[in-house]
Amino acid sequence: MPSVFFKTYGCQMNERDTEQVARDLLDRGYVRASSEREADVILLNTCSVRDLAEQKALRKMSNLKALRKNNPGVVLGFLGCMAQRKGKSLEQEMKGLDLVVGTQKFHRVADLVGEARKARLGGRPQFLADVEEEAASEKTIRDHVLSPKQVTAFVSVMQGCDMHCSFCIVPTTRGKERSRPIAEIVTEVRGLVEKGIKEVTLLGQIVNMYGRREIPSIGGKSAFVQLLEELQEVDGLERIRFTSPHPRGMKEDLIGCYGRLSKLCEHLHLPVQSGSDRLLKEMGRGYTVEQYKKIIQKVRQACPGIGLTTDVIVGYPGETEEEFQQTYRLMEEVEFDNGFIFRYSQRDGTRAAKSLEPEVAESVKEKWNKALLDLLDRQVAVSAPKRVGTLTEILVEGPSKTKESRLTGRSRQNRPVVFDGSARHLGQLLQVRITESTGFTDYADPAILE
Predict the structure, then answer these.
(1) Which tens digit of pLDDT belongs to each residue from 299-326?
(2) For position 449, what pLDDT does the model report?
(3) Cα Rg for the chain, rounded, in angstroms?
(4) I want to staple 152 with a disulfide (CB 3.0 to 4.6 A). Which of 24, 199, 354, 368 is the partner?
(5) Binding-site residues for [4Fe-4S] cluster
(6) Do 379 and 393 belong together in one domain?
(7) Residue at 280 is within a domain
(8) Binding residue numbers
(9) 9 and 126 part of one domain
(10) CA–CA gap between residue 378 and residue 398 (Å, rounded)
């Protein structure tokens, strides 16, 4: 049987897309290769959010071509966002490439792999590219590859984005917003629960904009809130998460779900991007710093103790030291549990790339990036000890990444919790007592499990 090896760059949506492609190929008789050297087909699912991610994928593919010395029939392909953005130009940029498949064509990969493999084994390799838009492609990301004891799963509820933030390439690589019907998603989740899944994470480029084009509000409840309420009623489903929302979509009906819907986990990842109103306007974010803080205040009122995380960009074109300090003060005030700090990366085709504002030096970006990370470290060093001695519910997901003799789970606030458990605890919801914390990871006493 032919074997396939995947490498995925970027976000959870890319991971979910890779899973769908894997499912399609497994259904056609392929097996997963344990390494690149053993594979008959190697597919890189790519990211375009930052230039670094694209460069990593290109370097990786360049190195993979050396495998043809021992296996001339190996098929090499790019999938996803970079494939969508660069399209057929990759044939010239990366000689010897077999496949380029865009973000609306994941359901076509198995067919194209078959064609490419036949051509290469026949001694007449050909370049195949499919990056055209396709209606209803959002409905094709619905199948899963589940491992034994797996209890969490990603569920894609929509594709694309209509927000057009000035720094973001996603509307170009993922297309316009398209949402799946509520009933279709609920059916998928029920099927996952039947296979042992206890927690689902709903995925969308801006997930709380789900259904705004296709599904009318009912009784003041948005389509996304309607979806959450339907999933709340799925028997056997224990937890619901979603990522990533936009502040403009955090309306009263969604905020009210925290505390009202028992299965909705007490965690919110809400990107702020900047603490400067001028930069937020330049970015096209559609809110002010004060509006963002009011959302946080309302969320904390609805759900005291909620885990809050965010995204921040430093070094946006024209950003000044004072504007960075505004971001710093915002993070000081909000006291996030964690954050992803990104140095601005210019993406061709975005409005920010055409800005006449001066570029911020890389050394300054690095300094600002470190300052925010250091702030987060200091803040969690204060908040983490307060959790020691408390009980928390975790869903046990598997072995710890750093020590396989230990198990790890996640709290409802999305904090990793490590403890000395055994195989019988895998997949269980457990109450454990926190005994120690490094800030971003908690450790639990196993005695309460006995």
Answers:
(1) 999 999 999 999 999 999 999 999 999 9
(2) 54
(3) 23
(4) 199
(5) 11, 47, 81, 161, 165, 168
(6) no
(7) no
(8) 11, 47, 81, 161, 165, 168
(9) yes
(10) 29
